[in-house]
Design a protein that fits this description.
mainly beta, 0% helix, globular, 10 strands, six-stranded mixed beta sheet, four-stranded antiparallel beta sheet
Length: 110
């Protein structure tokens, strides 16, 4: 699966942002999709994941209640809606589904 991300940029603390990840290649709908992030000087960490049907989602404790993952299998796209962003959310965000997206930088200014 090839993954191309969009979105990202600079946002103020408390603001919102949505990331998108468009997939091509193997059948998208059969893959569980996820988002990971890597903050400066830190290891890459799990953020959220969604089952192939979209019926089951998983979240890291640090983003529960603020981030929402969703997918549109007809568009081969997975989304990450991020609300109430904090400075600790500043990181490069990667889409994942057997391979990695290119990563998009999200910077939250306080």
């Amino acid at each position: 699966v090839q993954l191309v991300e969009s979105g990202g940029g600079l946002v103020q603390a408390g603001g919102s942002m949505r990331l998108s990840c468009a997939a091509s290649g193997r059948i998208f709908s059969t893959y569980r999709m996820g988002w990971f992030r890597q903050a400066p000087g830190k290891e890459r960490e799990f953020v959220t994941a969604i089952s192939w049907s979209g019926g089951t989602t998983y979240y890291a404790d640090s983003v529960k209640g603020r981030f929402t993952i969703s997918r549109d299998n007809a568009k081969n796209t997975v989304y990450l809606q991020m609300n109430n962003l904090k400075s600790d959310d500043t990181a490069v965000y990667y889409c994942a589904a057997g391979s990695w997206g290119q990563g998009n930088l999200v910077t939250v200014s306080s």
